[in-house]
Amino acid sequence: MSERVRRAVICIAAALIGFLGAVQPAFAHGFSSTAYVHVTAADEGHVRTSLKLEYDLFVISAADAEHDDDLFRTGNGAFDAGDTTAQAAALNAHKKSAVAYVTQRFSVTAAGKACAPEQVGDFTMDRQEGVPYTVLLLDWDCQELAGDHRVRSGLFPDSETYVRGTKTIVTYDLDGRSGSAALDAAHPSFSIDQPWYAWFWEFFRLGAEHLLTGTDHILFLLALIAGSRRLREIVLAATSFTLAHSVTFMLAALGAVDVPSRLVEPVIALSIAVVAGWHLWRIRQRGSHASDLDPGASAWGAAGSGPGSGGRGFLRDHVALDRAGWLRLAVVFCFGLVHGLGFAGALGIDQAWSWTLLGSLLVFNVGIEVVQLSIIAVVFPLLALLRRRSPTAGLWVTGTVSAGVALMGLVWFLQRVGGG
Question: Is the whole-model pTM more than 0.85?
Fold first, then answer.
């Protein structure tokens, strides 16, 4: 390969990594927020909503919107001190500002007309994914209205500039219906009477968007693709990753597993560096033969050889990997378990188990998988074609991509360990 072509290949690969790195800051999940709402029936003609809002964001947004400087000072002071009692006290001392902020951006309507809100009790504190959240109970008077109940949320909009892409996850048990919905700026409201396909699309879209906007997960996927030498390797790696993250995603989202995000996020960053570095290590050890399978293949391949091997022969020909391939697969599976915890953090539904909730989680996961498989279906064939036409160019591309991904993974790891 000529020096000019080599430089062009390196520049293209480096530009791709640089673009992905610029799409989002180091914390791929840290500059957005999720609000959680549970909707139930209260007294006759009333609807009760339990809102869980990220505390420090709520204090800043409410204080700014309502020009309440004292709320900003006392609320942030309590947050910096980590004093949950003082945090709740700061909000309760400024109920007017805090409630006004919410009710101007969140509403319940019936028959197309607004229900009147009233706070129930005081603000209390809770935690979600290791982050302080405040809980606000509101009763909505809809007794003079009849018809379809609709929930709308415009909490923490991008225009405030504090966060971007806020999601409001709603669970409900009202009017003889139960289910979930995912609201954002593009889809700010939903009807309790929504058809099943609307609910399906909301959670499918939420899962797809989460992977597309989660730069760290995309880079991990690119590292998998770059280091896969054969179609069977990327298929098995993707399957292993899917199985692993699906298990922990479901367990974490259902509340069976609770691992703090301060532990999950650094390990996700480290996984990116390790998987990308694996391919760089093979290039260093084997040079132009980095994409070749090791002699002797695998234990399964050897066991499947010879007459009468039956199904083992099929495994040898179509599934068998060398020792490096199997070891890489095990590493990918282990890291997939951690990535599942990261996916669960985007949803964070904290309600009792139900078939409806399980369905929402499954559809969210399907959205993730469709995007993941789409990326593989587009990128890997192009890479395979390049390797076949020009093995040297393919090696330079995968090496450059792996180096860029490994570097970004290490930077993110150090930032996340340091809390930056």
Answer: no
β-strand partners of 178 = 173
Find where tokens 């559809």 sit. 363
Other CB atoms within 10 A of residue 198 CB: 13
Average pLDDT of span 366-392:
87
CB 368 within 8 A of CB 375: no
Q: How far apart are CA 404 and CA 355, in angstroms?
A: 43
Q: Where are the alpha helices (DSSP H) in 254-310?
A: 261-286, 299-303
Please tell me the distance from the alpha carbon of residue 347 to that of residue 128, in angstroms, as a whole number. 11
For residues 7 and 305, what is the distance between their CA atoms, to the nearest angstrom?
44
- Residue 299 CA to residue 322 CA, distance in Å, equals 8
What pLDDT digit, counting tens, does each position of 259-314 carry?
Answer: 877 788 889 889 999 988 888 888 887 666 556 555 554 444 444 444 444 444 44
Structure token digits, residue 273: 């560096």
How far is residue 166's CA from residue 192's CA, in Å, rounded to a whole number?
21
Would you call 111 helix, strand, or coil by DSSP?
Answer: coil
Judge whether 188 and 151 are in contact, CB under 8 Å: no
Q: What are phi and psi of 199, to 5 degrees?
A: -60, -45
Q: Mention every residue, 6+ apart, whose C-beta is less than 8 A from residue 71.
A: 59, 62, 63, 90, 91, 93, 94, 97, 98
**Residue type, position 209, single letter:** E
The kind and range of the H/E element at 141 are strand 131-141
Nearest-angstrom CA–CA distance, 274 and 169: 33
> Could you tell me if 79 and 56 are in contact, meaning their C-beta atoms sit under 8 angstroms apart?
yes
352, pLDDT greater than 70: no
Sign of CA dihedral 213, 219, 224, 225: positive
Cα 366 from Cα 204, distance rounded (Å) = 6
Name the token pair of 85: 């009692």
Q: What's the CA gap between 119 and 101, in Å, rounded?
A: 13
Chain centroid offset of residue 419 CA: 19
